[in-house]
Sequence to fold (107 residues):
Amino acid sequence: MPRNAVIKVRVSEEEKAIMEDKALACGCTLSDLVRQRLLNCRLRQTPEEKERLRLLAQAGNNINQLARWANTHEGHIATVEVVLRLEALWLAFTQADKRPREETSCT
Fold:
């Protein structure tokens, strides 16, 4: 595929030197390094991702509280139910991680 389009980016002399050093260390040209890094870079922290991380942190907090309760009340019969529910949550999280994810647009 011919590469005939040009993208111009302004950087300081120091930034340019750092980028050239990194390209040299990788054994490639500056253009190849920039192209490879930008084309393979996944931007994170989209609004949807931030919300998912917030919900996951909340769920993790709740799971920690349940686990602490189960450890405190080991002899209590309700502990068995809590542990079973924790295992079900763990299974749901691990299965959700295996599902294919939708591609999100970069913002």
User: Anything to note?
Assistant: Confidence is low (pLDDT under 50) at residues 103-107. Residues 1-41 form one domain. Residues 86 and 92 are 10 Å apart (CA to CA).
